[in-house]
């Protein structure tokens, strides 16, 4: 930490900046934002910083000098006027995001070209959005050539030049230590020189308008290859890429992928958005495949040997899923946004743990899947949910908008649920929910006729609750939810927040468009981070301004309450206080009755003991008289 009193040579600005930022540095990491009114970075050299990130700092003018900095991240909002003063001799990582055509990136390249200070650089990322290409960016390849011809960059391990209008990369062949290279969105690029980068393990060539990729067969250490978006791509000889386990061929219009059978270590294969008619397999092929992304669903796709554990066919206009029955190793299936009516074929997959079927045409759910952990059936008009009773391990159940008006259709076997979604179901009462004592997340929004939430007082494990767009006005049962972190009560008639005043774990409250006037009950909830109380009639929002953790604080569009509304609110508070007093009196009465009962029991015991003593004394007298008479007879 810098002692400002000893830094007599520092300017007043530098001293002020050091005081502002030295306490924000954690483990050598410093983030500077535009709204912190930083105009130059001279003060950085006096701080112990290893990683520096600049967010949207548009008006920084001076140099960055600090030999301790190893990582520098400059986001797309930064508008440097002088970036040639990067005096960072130990810099290892430089990330510069570009989302508009400017000269700064080119100037940085020129500076790096002529300076040995970048000899430690191991990772360089000069991203430019392809939507912002400009004619002058055509000179970028010249700058790249000047840059990479320098011996100072031969230690580069990671290089990203996304969207930089590069066509000739001959100069990259000198970067023989590269392990990761991303040249995506550089159109019509000649990739032949890549064959010399034999240490590459990760290569991205997405949307480069490639046709022939023969040169890649020399990259025998390649593990990850992204060729997405190269329409008309000719499949290359892959027999030498035995280490490859992640391959992306999305939107390439490939038809025949039989050669991919040779990739015995494949774990993740993306062939979606293509016109593949057949997926021919030989025995033992794709035995390590864990994720298969494909867009077609046809009977002639032979996949009985496939060991994939996850399948995502969402939004594919599918109606028939009978071929999925062959995927015996599947554990997770996502079939959302389709036209599926019959899911009986899934009964042959008893090992399923995750099943998502929202936005289909289901009318019943009768599957018996004993290992299911998560199930989403939302946006299906379900008349029969009898299958739920056969999934006792369910932890997450989504029945949003499934026309569930009677909660008794949720069987007792699911009382252990952790998350339950019941929004948009025209529910009028929820007494059955008192059995779900393990619930942690509950959504009841958009049940307009729901008014009484008293059963929720038994759900004390809840951390997240949503009752937006309901008829709820009284939230007194929430006072028992001591673990609650997130609460959504927007668009309700809630007035009184006193039931929340002791919920010290609350972090987020969404309560826009309610009838709330007073937020003072939240004053002691120091963990609050996000509040949305817009469109209310709150008069004392300032009572919360001392909270330090707010990331969102919206009290906009407040109306001044009318006198009669204030009177009404006072009555509500009075009723609330009365209820508290009544509960207190009731509790005192119960204690009093208990004490009276105990007193009566004590008196009864005393009487019984005295009676027993009296009887014993009588017996003693009788025995004494008997003994005396016996002695007299003798």
Give keywords:
single chain; 634 residues; alpha/beta; Leucine-rich repeat, LRR (right-handed beta-alpha superhelix); 24-stranded parallel β-sheet; two-stranded parallel ribbon; 4 helices; extended; Leu-rich_rpt_4; leucine-rich repeat; repeat; SDS22/Internalin_LRR; LRR_dom_sf
Q: What do you see in this structure?
A:
It contains four helices and 26 strands. The chain has a 24-stranded parallel beta sheet, with no helix packed on it. Strands 3-5 form a two-stranded parallel sheet. It is an alpha/beta fold. Helix 2 packs parallel to helix 3.
Helix content: 10-25%
Number of helices: 4
The CATH architecture name of the domain at 210-308 reads Alpha-Beta Horseshoe
CATH evolutionary superfamily of the domain at 210-308: Ribonuclease Inhibitor
Largest β-sheet summary: 24 strands, parallel
N- and C-termini, Cα separation? 111 Å
Query: What structural category arises from helix and sheet content?
Result: alpha/beta
> Which percent band covers the strand fraction?
5-15%
